[in-house]
Write a structure and sequence with these properties.
Strand order of the largest sheet: 2-1-4-6-8
Largest sheet: 5 strands, mixed
Strand content: 25-35%
Number of strands: 12
Order of helices and strands: EEEHEEEEEEEEE
Structural class: mainly beta
Number of helices: 1
């Protein structure tokens, strides 16, 4: 008998290995260190649980081979906060689909995407962003599209 989990995170490592974390509303650096055996450079892709409300500070910081962050499912997204330095120095991150759909993200804290040199597109027009912290997008060299609803500017 196979059990189906609705609330989980999926991680794909650089060697193609898939790992999962079953339900937790807050994703944090300890989770990533456990998944990667304290070698965050092994993380390649992350699919966030729809039940995740917060990505804690430094969660993905220095995940140098992380290329994609997205949701497990595009329905009923709970994420509201991306904390300080969450994706800092993720210099291979080119796709962040956390903003691509209607969602509840209200806060992007200081230096959240700092040094994400390959990030090329952010669409926040369907977000409810109320606050973007200092240097949240510092040193993003290839960002060619940033689109926001008029009331988010």
């Amino acid at each position: 008998m196979e059990k189906k989990y609705d609330n989980f995170y999926e991680f794909i490592l650089t060697n193609g290995e898939k790992k999962a974390l079953i339900y937790d509303n807050t994703l944090n650096e300890s989770h990533i260190n456990n998944i990667t055996n304290n070698n965050k450079g092994l993380l390649k892709k992350v699919f966030i649980s729809n039940s995740c409300t917060t990505i804690s500070a430094n969660t993905f910081k220095d995940c140098s081979n992380l290329t994609l962050v997205s949701y497990i499912d595009a329905n009923d997204i709970s994420l509201t906060t991306i904390e300080s330095r969450d994706f800092d120095n993720c210099n291979s991150l080119d796709e962040c689909k956390l903003f691509d759909i209607s969602n509840n993200i209200t806060t992007i804290v200081n230096s959240a995407f700092k040094k994400c040199h390959q990030l090329y597109q952010l669409k926040v027009e369907t977000s409810h962003i109320q606050s973007i912290g200092h240097n949240a997008f510092e040193n993003i060299c290839h960002l060619y599209t940033y689109s926001a609803a008029r009331d988010h500017l």
